[in-house]
């Protein structure tokens, strides 16, 4: 049955073209590298190449400039691209940062009005997190002065003592804490659901991808996630993550497991919940709009209805439920 399903999928692919998916080094998105490295997409009849971007601005520029067909991205950063004038389509919310992004400080961790906080993105992805943290401390987002740097420069500024507080994600946060004496006073686990992430693309480029191909790309992700869960696959998983996701790094098992513990990758049931008409993704987009408006940052009005297209995800879930995911 598995072989028959794959043959049918491949037969329906039509003329084969290669799709590129851009992403930053982040362990939650490693299943993309797993799907590529293990030939999962090839067996589904779709050609995909995953492109690593090692700077935040490089990544955003590649997406806005159409140098990749799709991107793994924080949903808030997709909103940020829309605010900067790039129409975007969200194909699927796939995971959360749930502790992986941290607010790291020196000394006693005091955050007061006027505090400078270094961030790797000055966009709704980070603003939603910081707003939640500040609200819990009786402060407002507007009380902070934000300074934007790429991750490596951000950590370097912190290590040199030039930034008293930074928001950064693993593995960069591990460096800031181990080498710079930083203390994580808050994380995305403290503001649950504040940083959803997923697959998106420039609106015109997503529209140019046949829905059957897009469904197979999502299905490949789902099958890779399933494979990643197998204890017997850990050694191969760690090798792929170090070689591909982190570009030849040598993170040990303890660090990799620590990074994995602070992300939440959605299973099929959560995917359905999050993408319902009144589900969490729609609510998150609306919350981003309110946050931008309340802080006089709203440049271009937007709605969830114009940004989200779940047709390919629905098709991928149907294929997954048909049994393909259980056999990969």
Provide a compact summary of the structure.
The protein is an alpha/beta fold and 328 residues long.
Descriptive notes:
The chain is of the alpha/beta class and 328 residues long. The chain has 2 domains: 228 residues, D-Maltodextrin-Binding Protein, domain 2 (3-Layer(aba) Sandwich), CATH 3.40.190; 87 residues, 3-Layer(aba) Sandwich (D-Maltodextrin-Binding Protein, domain 2), CATH 3.40.190. The chain is built from 16 helices and 11 strands. It has a 6-stranded mixed beta sheet with strand order 2-1-3-10-4-11, sandwiched between helices. A 5-stranded mixed beta sheet has the order 7-6-8-5-9, with helices on both faces. Helix 6 links the parallel strand 6 and strand 7. Helix 2 crosses helix 11 and helix 6 crosses helix 14. The chain is globular and about 55 Å long.
């Amino acid at each position: 049955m598995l072989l028959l399903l794959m043959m049918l999928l491949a037969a329906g692919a039509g003329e084969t073209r290669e799709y590129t998916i851009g992403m930053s080094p982040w362990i939650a998105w490693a299943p993309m590298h797993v799907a590529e490295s293990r030939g999962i997409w090839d067996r589904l009849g779709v050609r995909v190449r995953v492109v690593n971007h090692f700077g935040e601005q490089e990544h955003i520029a590649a997406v806005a400039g159409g140098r990749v067909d799709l991107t793994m991205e924080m949903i808030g950063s997709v909103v940020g691209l829309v605010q900067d004038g790039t129409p975007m389509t969200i194909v699927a919310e796939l995971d959360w940062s749930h502790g992986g992004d941290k607010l790291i400080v020196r000394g006693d961790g005091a955050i007061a009005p006027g505090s400078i906080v270094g961030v790797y993105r000055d966009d709704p992805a980070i603003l939603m997190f910081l707003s939640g943290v500040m609200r819990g401390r009786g402060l407002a987002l507007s009380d902070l002065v934000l300074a934007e740097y790429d991750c490596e420069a951000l950590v370097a500024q912190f290590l040199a003592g030039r930034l008293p507080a930074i928001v950064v994600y693993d593995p960069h946060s591990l460096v800031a804490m181990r080498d710079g004496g930083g203390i994580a006073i808050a994380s995305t686990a403290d503001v649950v659901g504040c940083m959803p992430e997923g697959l998106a693309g420039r609106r015109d480029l997503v529209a140019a991808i046949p829905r059957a191909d897009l469904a197979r790309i999502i299905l490949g992700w789902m099958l890779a996630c399933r494979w990643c869960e197998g204890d017997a696959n850990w050694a191969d998983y760690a090798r792929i993550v170090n070689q591909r996701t982190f570009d030849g790094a040598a993170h040990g098992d303890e660090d990799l497991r620590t990074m994995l513990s602070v992300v939440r990758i959605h299973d099929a049931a959560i995917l359905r919940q999050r993408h319902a008409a009144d589900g969490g993704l729609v609510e998150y987009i609306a919350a981003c709009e309110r946050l931008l408006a309340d802080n006089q940052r709203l440049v271009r009005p937007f709605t969830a209805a114009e940004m989200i297209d779940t047709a390919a995800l629905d098709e991928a879930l149907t294929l997954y439920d048909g049994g393909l995911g259980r056999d990969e």
